[in-house]
Structures are given as C-alpha cells and as structure tokens.
Amino acid sequence: MFVEQNVPLQSHNSFGIVAKARALVRVRGESEVRELLADPEYGSIPRFVLGGGSNIVLTGDVKPLVLKVEVAGRRLIDDGPRATIVEAGAGENWHEFVTWTLDQGYPGLENLALIPGTVGASPVQNVGAYGVELQDRFESLDAIDLFTGKTFTLDAAQCAFGYRDSVFKHMAAKEGDLGLAGRALILRVRFRLPKPWKSVLGYLDLQRKIQETGIREPSARQVYEWVCAVRSAKLPDPRVIGNAGSFFKNPTVTPEQCQDIIAREPNIVHYPMPDGSVKLAAGWLIDACGWKGKSVGNAGVYEKQALVLVNRGGATGGEVVTLARAIQTSVYERFGIRLEPEPVVI
Ligand code: EPU
After folding, report:
1. What's phi and psi for 135, nearest 5 deg?
2. What are the angstrom distances between the C-alpha of 134 and each of 42, 245, 300?
3. Average pLDDT for residues 109-131, to the nearest whole number?
4. 305: Cβ below 6 Å to ligand 1?
5. Which domain holds residue 126?
6. Would you say residue 185 lies in a domain?
7. What is the pTM of this model?
8. Cα–ligand 1 centroid distance for 280 (angstroms)
9. Residues 292, 286: Cα–Cα separation, whole Å
10. CATH of the domain at 10
11. CA distances (Å), 59 to each of 18, 254, 345, 346, in order?
12. How far is ligand 1, taken at its centre, from the CA of residue 98, in Å?
C-alpha cells in the first residue's frame, strides 16, 4: 500500500478549491482496502472516500486519510431479451461511461449525459436529470465495508434511493440502523437498460428541442446530443468554471403551503408530485431574491442558473459556505422555505 503525503486536491474537486490531503491512498480494487485495514499505522484512523469530487466543498486541508477511488473497467454483463446489464468500476468518469454505453449500442442513460463526477458517486446522490434518475436504471452495486474489509452487493431497495438521496448519505446512529455513510466504499455499479428502448422526453427543455428541430422520434444518440446542448447552454463546465452542479435541492412543500406562496408570488415555478406534495424550483426562488450574478469574495452565483454556485477564481470553501448561508437566509426571509444544500461541506 502506497500512502502519498500532502497531495493537492484542486484538480480532484470540481469547485477547484485549493486544499491538500494530508495523506491519500489510491484504491484500485478490494486489495488496497484490505491492505489498509491490516496496516498498523493507517488501519484504524478516520477516512474520507473521494470519488470525482463533484459534490464536495473543501473548507481546508483534509485531515482524515483520503481514499481516492480509482476502480476501473467497463463491461457488458448480460444482453438479454428484456434488458442489457452493464457494469462500470466506481472510478470511471460518469459521462465517458454514458458515452461508451451509447457507442456500444446500449441506450438508456442518454438523459444523464454530461453529469460531472464518477460512476461510484452516482448512486450516492441518486443523480438525476431531464426526467431520469439513476434509480430508474440501477441494477446493483458491489461495495466494501471499510471496517471489516468484507465485500457485499446491494440491490435498489437496499440502497434506499430518494431524491438526491440514498443509504450512502446517512450515518447509522446505532446497530441495525440503515446508513452506510463513512462505512461503505462503492467498487462497481451495474445498470439495467430496459428493452425495447423508449425515449424519455417529458422535460420542457427536450420538448423545446422537438419543436425546434421537428424531430418527433429522436434516437438515443439524438437525445444525448440534446441533453449535452441543454446542459452546456445553462450549466458551467467545471473544467472551465469551478462548480458542484446544483448547490441546493429543490424543496418540497404541501399543496396548502404552495397555494399560500402562489397567492403572494403568482409566478413561482412549481411541479405537483405523484405523492401529492409540490416541488418548487430552488433556482427560481434564488433568482427571485436577486442573487444571479452576485458574489461573496471569489464565490458567486452563476449568471445563467441561480441554483449553481461557482468559483470565480481562487474562491475558498469558506466563501462558498458564506454565500450559501446568505442565500438560505434571504430565501427563508422571503418565502419561509429552508433550502437544503446538496454538496457535502468538508
Ligand atoms: N429557474 C429560474 N432562474 C434560475 C434557475 C432556474 O427561474 O436562475 C427556473 C427555470 O426557468 C425553470 C426552473 O427554475 O423553470 C427549473 O430550472 P431547471 O430546468 O434548470 O432545473 P433545476 O430544477 O434547477 C434540476 C436538477 C439538475 C438537473 C435539472 C434537469 C436539482 C437540485 N437539480 O435543476 O441537476 O440537471 O433539474 O433535470 O434537482 C445537479 O443536481 O447538479 C443538477 C444539475
């Protein structure tokens, strides 16, 4: 096992914040984790699992031992009559994996194109975009227990997926509780791509593309290109402008709360949910409070999408957190709604 000291993390977090890992181990498979557990010096110290770093805000050097997930590989598991099952190592880049599936002729992930991050991070927050969530295409995953070194497999029910949520985001408070945060390191993820393929085009931005192009029955490749175009037009490319995608979750309220807000704010963007609740567009709430284009130090609110906080160059994690808190306060004061951040602050 090779432990690297004082490793710069700027290129390992999509916000591009300057920070270091005091110590870092690259995990390419089960064996590194088992070696680590057996190590007299590093075996029992606190650890932090780092995937693509697309959902974190670093507020200083990372003191726990960083486990940088670099498990590679992409393969076909089964091409049956009702679904294609494909597998990818947790360290694979998500977008490259989506592109690979389409190149191989396995459609189904096209709506999730261009989401930053790694395959291993995708189930943690149940990534979703343009009408498809990871849980809609999930088959199972292999993970390793960071305390015992045992590998285990979880199906969708065991992952307890919710909106930008899963068992991997929750800490077990006591024995028997559901919660694998800090405990499991995801090694490989398998996806179920249903046959026959059906496009998912309900999202407004994709409907607009149909209108613009006149293509009523797009291929999976066409949907992929539309999704890439829509995302590129309104979301900053993290390689150019540091960011962590949507900084807050879209909040849900009761229909009564929603009516109350509509009475005061008739233009509020809201979507009725199947369970009777109403989802509000956090980007709209933030925009309505006048935050678009504003900054705190070098952290700012993206000009084209108020839900995205950006690094304007040299931002610190502290600046990002201060900006996020100021946004939360003003949205709460105006709408009575508490916005919940998506990224993890470290
Ligand atoms: N809006 C504004 N002003 C803004 C931003 C948005 O008025 O500054 C309005 C838009 O006009 C639109 C509505 O808010 O009517 C929703 O905006 P958008 O379609 O951009 O989607 P979103 O709800 O802001 C969510 C996901 C994105 C995902 C898109 C597309 C969350 C937290 N975010 O954004 O996910 O790509 O839908 O499905 O659910 C991510 O999680 O990092 C992410 C980018």
Report:
1. -60, -25
2. 34, 16, 29
3. 97
4. yes
5. 74-194
6. yes
7. 0.95
8. 10
9. 8
10. 3.30.43.10
11. 9, 35, 7, 6
12. 21
